[in-house]
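tmp note - UDP-3-O-acylglucosamine N-acyltransferase
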Amino acid sequence: MHTYSLKTLATVLNVEFRGDENITINAIASMANAKQGQITFLADKKYQAQLKDCQASIVVLTKESLPFWNGAALIVSNPYLTYAKLAQLLDTTPLPAEEIAPSAVISSHATLGKNVAIGANAVIESGVILGDNVIVGAGCFIGKDTKIGNNTKLWANVSIYHNIEIGENCLIQSGAVIGSDGFGYANDRGQWVKIPQLGRVIIGNNVEIGASTTIDRGALDDTIIRDGVIIDNQCQIAHNDQIGEHTAVAGGVIMAGSLKIGKYCLIGGASVINGHMEICDKVTVTGMGMVMRPISEPGVYSSGIPLQSNKVWRKTASLVLHIDEMNKRLKSLEKKLLQLSV
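out:
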């Protein structure tokens, strides 16, 4: 457990502080549950009134909120970002592996960098290159000729197929599958003929991939996930997709093949995106969006019907089913009005 003083935190984070510089904390907690010896943060002014009952030793807040708190404080412009940095300092998550386990199966033709850790029952095949400080969790499989860059971490039971490239400082959560076959078949008079998927998956630096997410290898060209992309749990990224730098993909998203997504996009949870098209930079698709056409202008895009009471939804559904009929009636009325005005 790490302990930090108020002054040390202010120095490390390069922010202003107020209060006794020797006050210490060793954990971070929510404002409602924080106790002495812990630090918390106020990221939304609507919770400002809760400061009067807060028991934390230190609160992270803005200069505007400072008058509402009498105790020790870190004074910042973005409390939520500071919270993220504090959580990294105070992180108690154990490593997926801390040494090379005796039960790990490592090919004599694999190349391991310095300080590599490999968990129990992991399999490292021939031609694999692991960079310095790579951590491979228990039960992982890394296929032939795959390359993994420095400081990348795989949690337990990650499957990396053959001839995959993963950059530096990546984090891949348990159950993720990288490089599985894309959904490629030809039809021969009702019978499906499998098309071997001959491309790769190329993953850049500082990429995070969530638990049970699947990224398919390309059919001929590569599937590419560029630097800084974050992908949540249980997503499907199909063959030949390309995702631009620093795009964020929330849980349960399904992407069809040969899709190109630009930089700095935000894809909301449970969205479905058609393939063989392009989405430009700085596009936000809100949750459960159904993207059927290319998007060429930055902005926020939505589809779907927000939750309603069942009674209201039934009426809405009934109206939708009669839209064509209503449209024809409206056009008929417009035509009659036009005739009357002549």
